[in-house]
Design brief:
Blueprint lengths: L1 E6 L3 E8 L2 E9 L5 H11 L10 E5 L2 H8 L6 E8 L13 H6 L3 E6 L14 H14 L3 E6 L7 H13 L4 E4 L8 H13 L1 H17 L6 E4 L5 E3 H6 L7 H14 L4 E6 L4 E7 L2 E2 L6 E3 L2 E3 L6 E4 L5 E4 L4 E6 L4 H4 L10 H7 L16 H22 L6 E6 L13 E5 L7 H8 L2 E10 L5 H18 L8 E9 L7 E10 L2 H5 L1
Parallel strand pairs: 1-4, 4-9, 5-6, 5-7, 7-8, 11-19, 19-20
Antiparallel strand pairs: 1-2, 2-3, 9-10, 11-12, 12-13, 12-16, 14-15, 17-18, 21-23, 22-23
Helix pairs in contact: 1-7, 4-5, 9-13, 11-12
Length: about 525
């Protein structure tokens, strides 16, 4: 049996799954410290044997997103770019918000190294230069390092060599190599590595706290975390790459929606307590964003779902005149502050109950809500959701839409632009189900000069590396297969240069070991 947990801004959901069968589900308010809310949800779904039959716990968490937004617990971080004499016009962290840059220390260094697009060195590593940088890092109390080399996805040698040097010089520092978690584009890849580096301590502490909470409940099963692309990684991999879990919530919901609806190509609308997330499923997995993604004001290019989010959910605060719904939300204090629970704040949930769409709390407490306000509010919610669906669609043709999330009752039975609207059973915990049923994945993106290496050899190399990354993340080697393989000719570069992306997916190792 497996347990899936997803931490949202308002609720923490948990499910107990035996294969394809849902045995138990729970929805608890998300706690301020996150971890105690996870414990409360786990307690409600644990089987009678106190967890002895549990083979794995799969978690989607907001720990890492919250740390960036609140700027708490971030490690003093240095960015070392291997590029000189190139790229001096745009130094590291040039586009970061001042407050976030200050929160991580903002230590930046530029050194010799890096490669051209075809693998030729820009300049050789200068270890005397790197030694001086290490001395300055120690003086500044640096605890995490992001290594970024020009065109390191083509040739990661300099990043690896410099990373190994700094690990010897500063054995307690956590080091992130940009070629391992970013794509082409020096600034965006460097930013992704820096975010990952500064989250290192948050990752270790969060995973340790969750593991301790599990053990206090008698759960000794391995812990897996959801990744941004809808797959899983084991706790060791997650501690190294916490940035891969930043968008795990929406992807869990989309994978759960696919599982519950039986659809592999559709639009998923997940209405939670705080936000509504809308994305497209392609072949059962979330469609990935093809452009740079903004995280906490930082432009990055690591794998992220192509999801549009709006501040609209069951906890959204409703101001009657003039009518404004959100962006403020009561969040996880819904059961304290909403009218139907005895509070004094009018929320979207109160509107739904007053309109007969939901049966929670005490309906008599919203009996005096004006009928015109109910109608106008529900029309506005419907309009906003339909607008986001239009933004996600790639064509004007009607498409299937799957509604999930605890706040999906705010949306009507039909929607403009939909050929069918599905509300699958247990859609209120689709996020936790998506975590529980997820597979393990690995992705690679590299540039090859097909004049130096044949196309067949390049494809074999990228496939092998993607499979290796899936296995490193916890997949059973014999179950891994490549599910995506894209070739993008870079016609603006000489030498028949091609960008190749590969994604491999496999079953959890624990499911094939017992």
């Amino acid at each position: 049996m497996l347990i899936g947990v997803d931490v949202g801004g308002t609720n923490t959901d948990a499910v107990l799954m035996d294969g394809a069968t849902l045995l138990a589900k729970a929805k608890c308010p998300t706690s301020g410290d996150v971890t105690s809310g996870v414990v409360a949800a786990l307690e409600k779904v644990l089987p009678n044997d106190s967890g002895q039959s549990i083979e794995g716990v799969m978690l989607g968490t907001t720990h890492f997103t919250n740390a960036l937004l609140e700027q708490k617990g971030l490690a003093p971080t240095a960015v070392v770019r291997l590029a000189l004499p190139a790229t001096q016009l745009l130094p590291p962290l040039v586009d970061w918000p001042d407050d976030l840059k200050s929160a991580i220390g903002g230590f930046t260094y530029m050194a010799s190294g890096g490669h051209e697009f075809d693998g030729r060195e820009i300049s050789s590593l200068d270890y005397t230069e790197l030694k001086k940088i290490a001395l300055d890092m120690r003086k500044n109390g640096v605890e995490a390092i992001a290594m970024s080399g020009v065109f390191s996805p083509v040739d990661p040698t300099h990043e690896r060599q410099a990373g190994a040097f700094f690990q010897r010089e500063m054995p307690h520092a956590q080091i992130t190599l940009s070629n391992e978690n970013g794509r082409m584009g020096i600034l965006e890849r460097e930013n992704a590595a820096t975010l990952n580096a500064c989250l290192g301590k948050v990752g270790e502490n969060s995973i340790r706290a969750i593991k301790q909470a599990m053990e206090s409940l008698g759960l000794t099963a391995p812990l897996y975390l959801s990744q941004n692309d809808g797959t899983l990684m084991d706790e060791g991999f997650a501690a190294r790459f916490p940035v891969f879990a930043i968008a795990s919530g929406p992807t869990n919901s989309m994978r759960g929606a696919a599982y519950l609806s039986g659809l592999t190509d559709c639009i998923v609308v997940d209405v939670g307590g705080t936000t509504t997330d809308v994305g497209a499923l392609t072949n059962g997995f979330p469609r990935e964003a093809s452009l740079a993604v903004n995280i906490a004001g930082v432009r990055t290019n690591f794998r992220m779902p192509d999801v549009v989010s709006i501040a609209l959910g069951g906890g959204s605060i409703v101001n009657p005149e003039p009518l404004v719904i959100g962006p403020e939300s009561v969040g996880f204090r819904l059961e304290e502050q909403a009218l139907v629970f005895g509070g004094n704040t009018l929320t979207a949930t109160d509107i739904a109950v007053a309109g007969g769409l939901a049966q929670v709390g005490d309906p008599t407490l919203v009996s005096e809500v004006d009928s015109s306000l109910r109608r106008r509010s529900l029309e506005e919610i419907q309009r906003r959701v339909e607008t986001v669906v239009d933004q996600v669609k790639l064509s004007p043709d009607p498409v299937p839409i799957v509604l999930v999330g605890g706040g999906s009752l705010l949306v009507g039975e039909s929607m403009t632009g939909a050929d069918q609207v599905l509300r699958p059973d247990h859609g209120d915990v689709a996020n936790a189900i998506g975590a529980a049923i997820a597979q393990v994945g690995g992705q690679v993106e590299k540039v090859f000069s097909l004049e130096d290496i044949g196309r067949g050899e390049a494809l074999a190399s990228i496939r092998s590396e993607a499979i290796g990354r899936a296995v490193a993340a916890g997949a059973e080697p014999t179950s891994v297969e490549v599910v995506e393989l894209d070739e993008i000719p870079l016609t603006y570069l000489p030498g028949n240069v091609t960008l190749i992306r590969a994604k491999a997916v496999g079953d959890l190792g624990i499911l094939n070991s017992g």
